[in-house]
Write a structure and sequence with these properties.
heterodimer; A: about 450 residues; alpha/beta; Aspartate Aminotransferase, domain 1; Aspartate Aminotransferase, domain 2; seven-stranded mixed β-sheet; four-stranded antiparallel β-sheet; 12 helices; B: alpha/beta; about 35% helix; globular; binds pyridoxal-5'-phosphate
Chain lengths: ~450, ~500
């Protein structure tokens, strides 16, 4: 099957029009010695029914465990309307709106999305998306280097409370351009960056400081103090935020003490919580918002409103002189294809939620996580790892290595959390757990009960 | 397509309205009493307050202001806008796949990982590469991975001087932009009058600083680079590696493979050749394939197999990896769609794809030439796409490639790619794809003929196009000068909304 509409008669008449005897002849400019006789290692075709069966069987094999893992990807309820709209062919099968007059739907949606994201993060401008939150952090650091004309060092301070995969991705994406990422240690009691950790950088040339709020552990950083410290030293602030949290938490645009210089300079994050399914890690989308003064340093597409030849309002891609198809080697980024469809889902999601609905999602998720942590820490051998406030995610300590316990729970259909041993061995046996509004009290009891049993068995063994 | 403009969703908003059935129950203020006041949000964000029906109607109406493959012929050159089979979407969106957390253990995901592993194997087969990583999230990120691997390879050999990436002048913008992102310097080489790389210029460009060359083959000029073996010999002899930009793989699928041409690393745009949806700008997926010598540098994670079990290979398994390019494993859902598509094509279908894509392009080339248009490379076969140049029409009639593009919209056809590659003046890069019928191609030729006749008789109709779209031509200069990037409440805008 190849979805080809040609009849034999079509092919004959087309070949005649071209003036060749066979399709094969159309490939006669390819050196004969390079030509492939047959594709091996690709299976034979399956019909739609057969492939449907295969995919369904494999899906069933994986099942649907009860999941309390967050760590950068969150299971929220997705209203039915979100993907009903996003999979409409007119959105699903269109491309980048290069022909603005035939793409007003996508363009207006992006403009509305930009408005929502700018407001949610408290910033002035938004682009139309980057690949994901992790790569967006890398792009934000590159952007900070371009935007901070007072700094020459390309040194970026990144607390180790920032998502470890984000740190690695940013280093991979931006490291080749000479950016130096320096790790800021965190307090192992508090699980966040102590203001004192910054003092040793006083007087040094630093380009930007990255702050994740809530941080990887779900802990709330003292964003005001960190932001003020940076701005007093001409250091740009790159905020990494969870969009759901912003319904309740102070947006990056308002971090720091009030005044002309308030707020982060660039905010990025993963838009996945806004109507995008977990789907093994993607496709999600990275968002990026910034202060207007930095807009010409932004990577990615940006949509603007303008007038048409008849004087009516319409939408178009703008500031394209930043982009690879115009500026080539001097572009702000190489990004071309972005994550448009996921932005479509997010725009619908945010419209259905509105400010009050998003607040409910944030508050309900937070409440469920409190309930979860309460239930888990009532289990003997389990305690809270850090003191201080969290949002909708928290680290807990176990009295024995987490991996075997998690494995046992997984066998019972429960993914109880993320083992912190790989990235934070200094913390001892610990789990990062998260509940969202999708979890019920019964789910939480089931998880706590199973954990208690597993620990009891392990102790007995 | 609708011609009725739709007002911004914020103008439907009424304080206190909302799609409440979508929301969770209110947990009460006590639920969040542990969040310190100084870290809380003060003012609510500007999000719409609308009912579910208002939102659905608004976004449905917006969708009707779009051209798309499902509704229109969309011959956008270099983008391979082929039909996106519905089955690919349906089977990638089975609830278990959607619900799977990216950090789930391998034991919960053997079905999904089997698909990914087999996808890697099939991509190796069609590119003739030794290893594949799926994580790059679009072509440009695949390019990044490829050039970063080339750099890492030279560095690992202590060959520290090699920082130049050669690209032909007709290369896609992502190629030079990628080279810069990888900390390399770009050297452009010209192509000759036949569209092949100028070998003399190449000979002068290669040397001890050459890290590699990035090529698309068939090239962005819609022709096959005939001396590719010679190019490979020259670059390899100089110590450089060859990067294959897989944007045009649709032209040669199952006919000739990048690895056999001498390439060391390739990316494949799954949203082109393997028909995953373009989604109004994305997502895509740009897996990379490499020869054995680059395999240690692949980005992680990769899907491996130990006995009967599928597993992740990470930094631990590939200590020389260029690292991670995404928070998790890239655009998994896109990869699943491509997997379904490839299984439905099978090995026979893959060859049919390139054959009919090439047939369609050469047929258009023949018919457009008959209709009075000038091929940019009249002595060459078209690949899966073709370029015509409207230089003559621009000079004689004052009607440009952009005017033709806009007038095509009035004929219910999306415009081809315009002004790329820049090398060909007043060009249209036309890629019909294999999923279009002869009737659709004939209609396109007829529309082009009509526009040409109109350009003679009534050129203002063409230069003033489009006439039937929801908006007329938009003022891009104003858009860039008087930036209006977010909606603001009434009165705050320079431009009032149209409803
Ligand atoms: C020739 C060529 N190279 C590279 C790219 C970049 O691919 P992507 O848009 O997936 O990043 C494109 C696509 O737009 C292309 O046409």
């Amino acid at each position: 099957m190849a979805f080809i509409p040609h009849t034999r008669a079509d092919v004959e008449s087309m070949l005649a029009a071209i003036g060749v005897g066979s399709i094969e002849q159309l490939f006669d400019e390819i050196p004969a010695n390079l030509r492939l006789a047959a594709l091996s290692n690709v299976p034979e075709a399956l019909s739609e029914m057969e492939v449907g069966r295969l995919m369904t069987e494999r899906a069933r094999l994986d099942g649907r465990p009860l999941c309390f893992i967050g760590a950068g990807a969150y299971e929220h309820h997705i209203p039915a309307a979100v993907w009903a709209i996003a999979t409409r062919g007119e959105f699903y099968s269109a491309y980048t709106p290069y022909q603005a007059e035939a793409s007003q739907g996508t363009l207006q949606l992006l403009y509305e999305y930009q408005t929502m994201m700018a407001s949610l993060t408290g910033m002035e401008v938004s682009n139309a998306s980057l690949y994901d939150g992790a790569s967006a952090m890398g792009e934000a650091c590159l952007m900070a280097v371009r935007a901070n004309r007072k700094s020459r060092s390309r040194r970026i301070l990144v607390p180790s409370t920032v998502n470890p995969h984000y740190r690695r991705t940013a280093a991979a994406v931006a490291g080749n351009q000479g950016l130096v990422f320096e790790e800021l240690p965190y307090c192992t009691e508090e699980g966040c960056v102590p203001a004192g950790a910054l003092a040793r950088y006083d007087g040094e040339d630093i380009t930007a400081l990255v702050i994740q709020q809530p941080n990887f552990f779900g802990r709330l950083e003292d964003v005001d103090a960190l932001c003020d410290w940076a701005h007093a030293r001409n250091i740009l602030v790159v905020a990494v935020v969870n969009p759901t949290s912003l319904a309740l938490l102070k947006p990056p645009g308002e971090w720091g003490s009030q005044g002309a210089n308030k707020g982060a300079d660039i905010a990025v994050g993963d838009g996945q919580p806004l109507g995008v399914p977990l789907s093994s890690g993607g496709p999600y989308f990275g968002f990026m918002t910034a202060r207007m003064e930095h807009v010409r340093q932004m990577p990615g597409r940006i949509v603007g409103r303008t007038l048409d030849a008849a004087g009516r309002a319409g939408f178009t891609l703008t500031l394209q002189a930043r982009e690879q198809h115009i500026r080539r080697a001097k572009a702000t980024s190489n990004i071309c294809t972005n994550q448009g469809l996921l932005v479509t889902a997010a725009a619908v999601y945010l419209s259905l939620m509105g400010p009050a609905g998003l607040e409910r999602v944030a508050a309900a998720s937070h409440a469920r996580t409190r309930e979860l942590v309460g239930a888990l820490t009532r289990v003997p051998g389990v305690r809270r790892l850090f003191r201080g406030p969290v949002f909708h995610e928290e680290a807990i300590a176990l009295d024995r290595p987490a991996a075997p316990v998690l494995e046992k729970l997984a066998a019972r259909g429960i993914l109880a959390g993320l083992d912190l041993a790989e990235h934070y061995p200094e913390l001892g046996p610990a789990l990062l757990v998260c509940a969202t509004e999708t979890k019920t009290s019964a789910d939480i009891e089931r998880c706590a009960g199973a954990l208690a049993e597993c620990l009891r068995e392990a102790r007995a063994a | 397509m609708s011609s009725r403009l739709e007002k911004p969703i914020f103008e439907y908003s009424v304080t206190g309205r909302g799609a409440e059935d979508q929301w969770p129950r209110d947990p009460g203020t006590a639920a969040t009493d542990d969040l310190p006041a100084k870290l809380r949000r003060g003012k609510r964000p500007l999000l719409p307050e609308v009912s579910e029906l208002e939102a659905v109607r608004h976004f449905t109406r917006l969708s009707q202001l779009n051209f798309s493959i499902d509704t229109h012929f969309y011959p956008l050159g270099s983008c391979t806008m082929k039909y996106n089979p519905k089955a690919c979407n349906q089977y990638a969106m089975l609830p278990e796949y959607l619900a799977r957390h990216p950090l789930s253990p391998e034991s919960v995901g053997q079905g999904f990982l089997a698909c990914m592993y087999e996808l890697q194997e099939m991509l190796k087969a069609v590119t003739s590469m030794q290893a594949v990583a799926l994580s790059p999230m679009a072509g440009a990120q695949g390019e990044f991975a490829g050039v970063a691997m080339i750099r890492a390879y030279h560095r690992a050999r202590g060959d520290l001087e090699r920082n130049e990436i050669i690209v032909p002048e007709a290369a896609h913008g992502t190629n030079p932009a990628t080279a810069t992102m990888c900390g390399c310097v770009v050297r452009e080489v010209p192509v000759d009058a036949q569209g092949d790389v100028d070998l003399e210029a190449l000979a002068a460009a290669v040397g001890p600083k050459t890290a590699g060359i990035m090529l698309t083959n068939p090239s962005t000029l819609g022709v096959f680079e005939r001396r590719i073996e010679e190019v490979a010999r020259m670059v390899h002899a100089a110590g450089g590696l060859l990067y294959y930009d897989g944007a045009n793989l649709n032209a040669i699928l199952g006919k000739v493979r990048p690895g056999d041409m001498g390439f060391d690393v390739v990316h494949i745009n799954l949203h082109k050749t393997f028909s995953t949806p373009h989604g109004g700008g994305g997502p895509g997926a740009g897996p990379v394939g490499v020869s054995a010598r680059l395999a240690p540098f692949l980005p992680v994670p990769i899907v491996g197999r130990r006995g009967e079990r599928y597993c992740w290979l990470t930094e631990r398994d590939l200590p020389q990896s260029i690292g991670r390019l995404s928070g998790f494993m890239g655009n998994a859902g896109v990869l699943l769609r491509a997997y379904v598509y490839m299984r439905m094509l099978g090995r026979e279908g893959m060859v049919k794809v390139s054959e009919h894509a090439t047939l369609n392009a050469n047929y258009l080339l023949a018919q457009l030439t008959r209709a009075g248009f000038d091929a940019a490379y009249p002595t060459r076969r078209a690949s899966h796409e073709l370029i015509i140049t409207l230089r003559r029409q621009a000079k004689e009639l004052g009607v440009t490639a952009m005017d033709f593009a806009k007038r095509l919209l009035d004929h219910g056809m999306h415009a081809p790619t315009t002004y790329f590659p820049l090398l060909v003046p007043e060009c249209l890069l036309i890629e019909p794809t294999e999923t279009e019928s002869k009737a659709a191609l004939d209609a396109f030729v007829a529309a082009m003929g009509d526009i040409l006749a109109e350009a003679v008789k009534e050129p203002e109709r063409v230069t003033g196009a489009p006439h039937t779209m929801p908006v007329r031509r938009l003022d891009d200069v104003r858009a860039a000068k008087q930036l209006d990037l977010t909606w603001k409440p009434a009165g705050a805008h320079a431009i009032p909304s149209t409803s």
